[in-house]
Amino acid sequence: MNNKSSYKSGFVAIVGRPNVGKSTLMNHVIGQKIAIMSDKPQTTRNKIHGVYTQESSQIVFLDTPGIHKRTSKLGDYMNQVALNTLNEVEAVLFLVDVAAGLGGGDRFVIEQLKLVKTPVILVMNKIDQVRPDEVPAMIQQYNELHEFAAIVPISALQGNNVDRLLQVLHGYLPEGPQYYPDDQITDHPEQFVVAELIREKILHATREEIPHSIAVTIEDMRVQENGVVYISAVIFVERDSQKGIIIGKQGALLKQVGKQARRDIETLLGSRTFIELWVKVKKDWRNHERVLKDLGFRHDV
Ligand SMILES: Nc1nc2c(ncn2[C@@H]2O[C@H](COP(=O)(O)OP(=O)(O)OP(=O)(O)O)[C@@H](O)[C@H]2O)c(=O)[nH]1
């Protein structure tokens, strides 16, 4: 895992009507890996669409399906979940199909996006299907409906201008940790990120006092009947003194960590969560290969 302070990372939500090319774009950006991820049954509503990792940055793309329909009560609820997510991410990619033209579905999504304070980047996909001289008028049409942070025409299928899109996105990434390892797609991608978010909050709250000698494992994570995701996580430290620091006076620091982590985790999952944090001392765990493996860590932690 990379803990360089200059590392940048963040969440980006992708929205767009069915068939506009969301999967094709992800395939182009990330390649084969996401196929594995998206095949996994998801416990929650927001799906991780893909993770794009580079030397100094990482983007976690979220799929936000709820935004497109307005039908039932469930639809309303989904919509609210989607809107909450969109308000918490670094940027929203709004994909449209220029070949299909601007339709009612797009207009509906734009109305939803007006409720969101996050920068929205309009991605005009399937540019290979129209004549170049048609593009300015199309841009104009969308510009009249909403003030987008940026407008980027691409062909996800042919890969045209996708680099430019990634460049624009990088501009919106704050400093943050590398949530996912470079090349490893875990069986439980959500759990991995949840653990990493908790770890990040601890390091932030304790500053220099707790070196990076902590590990966080998710012992239990499941959706309860009331829809709340229950998470039980164990924080492993090397010394008793570190345990005291992390718990804090009357549990104050741990409570703060839990609160901050919950905010991010709820954004990621699009669900309410209940998080239990435990602190355990496991002496010199970093030196033990097997323990490391149990904890699901690689060697360079
Ligand atoms: N010509 C052209 N076709 C594209 C482009 N991007 C996607 N397509 C095609 O559009 C169709 C739909 O693409 P998907 O990536 O499955 O769309 P999606 O938005 O993920 O669709 P849902 O999963 O239904 O939400 C596929 O046949 C793609 O090959 C593009 O840039 N140009």
TrEMBL record:
Gene3D superfamilies according to UniProt: 3.30.300.20, P-loop containing nucleotide triphosphate hydrolases
InterPro entries associated with the record: G_ERA_dom (IPR030388), GTP-bd (IPR006073), GTPase_Era-like (IPR005662), KH_dom-like_a/b (IPR015946), KH_dom_type_2 (IPR004044), KH_sf_prok-type (IPR009019), P-loop_NTPase (IPR027417), Small_GTP-bd (IPR005225)
One of the record's GO molecular function terms: ribosomal small subunit binding
Topology class, membrane: Peripheral membrane protein
GO cellular component, as recorded: cytosol; plasma membrane
All residue ranges annotated as the Era-type G domain in the record: 8-175
UniProt region (G3), positions on chain: 63-66
Key words, A-Z: Cell membrane, Cytoplasm, GTP-binding, Membrane, Nucleotide-binding, Ribosome biogenesis, RNA-binding, rRNA-binding
Function per UniProt: An essential GTPase that binds both GDP and GTP, with rapid nucleotide exchange. Plays a role in 16S rRNA processing and 30S ribosomal subunit biogenesis and possibly also in cell cycle regulation and energy metabolism.
Quaternary assembly: Monomer.
Family: Belongs to the TRAFAC class TrmE-Era-EngA-EngB-Septin-like GTPase superfamily. Era GTPase family.
NCBIfam families per UniProt: era, PRK00089.1, small_GTP
Name of the protein described by the UniProt record: GTPase Era
Organism: Paenibacillus agilis
Gene name for this UniProt entry: era
